[in-house]
Amino acid sequence: MAARFDSIELVVTDMEASLRFYRRLGMSIPEDAGSEGHVAVELPGGVRIQFDTEEIMQSFSDWTPPQRGGGHRIALAFACDSPTDVDTVYAQLVESGAPSHLEPMDAFWGQRYATVLDPDGNSVDLFASLEDTAPQG
């Protein structure tokens, strides 16, 4: 029997704040889910993202929060339709209170790229190909 990838799990400090953040990125999450300790959402393609509160994790294991202040262990990446959309989504998230980690830039690997932090400090990357915006000649 082979294992198959099924889901991504995020342990969150404030369920409602985290769900509100990911709704702004287009995830279809029920509005009444914020009071739950566990929320699972199926993403396009069948993979699920699951959110668990710290309290839920501690209810069945000796889980402790990771130390903050260093690099990140996980990053979620969201594709945007255009470089302009990267800038727009980045600005909307920062205006709504998400901390900026990396302002939008044209990266050497050919993408418009930016990073914000979710309510728990996880990196959320926004990107779009620069290829479609290259001068034709």
Chain-averaged pLDDT: 89
Q: What's the gyration radius in Å?
A: 17 Å
- Tally of extended strands? 7
Count up the helices: 3
Tell me the major beta sheet.
4 strands, mixed
Instruction: Give the overall shape.
Output: globular
Q: In angstroms, what separates the terminal alpha carbons?
A: 53 Å
Strand fraction: 25-35%
Instruction: Give the strand order of the largest sheet, numbering strands 1, 2, ... along the chain.
Output: 4-7-6-5
Please mark out the parts with pLDDT under 50 across 5 or more consecutive residues, or reply none: none
N-to-C series of helices and strands: EHEEHEHEEE
Helix share, percent: 10-25%
- Secondary-structure content class: alpha/beta
What attributes does this structure have?
137 residues, alpha/beta, four-stranded mixed sheet, 7 strands, globular
Question: What report would you give on this structure?
Answer:
The protein is α/β, with parallel strands linked by helices and 137 residues long. Helix content is 22%, strand content 31%. It contains 3 helices and 7 strands; from the N terminus they run E-H-E-E-H-E-H-E-E-E. The strands form 2 sheets. Strands 4-7-6-5 form a 4-stranded mixed β-sheet, covered by helices on one side. Strands 1-3-2 form a 3-stranded mixed β-sheet. Strand 5 and strand 6 form a beta hairpin. The longest helix has 13 residues, at 83-95. It is globular, with a radius of gyration of 17 Å. The protein starts with 6 loop residues before the first strand and ends in an 8-residue tail after the last strand. The mean pLDDT is 89.
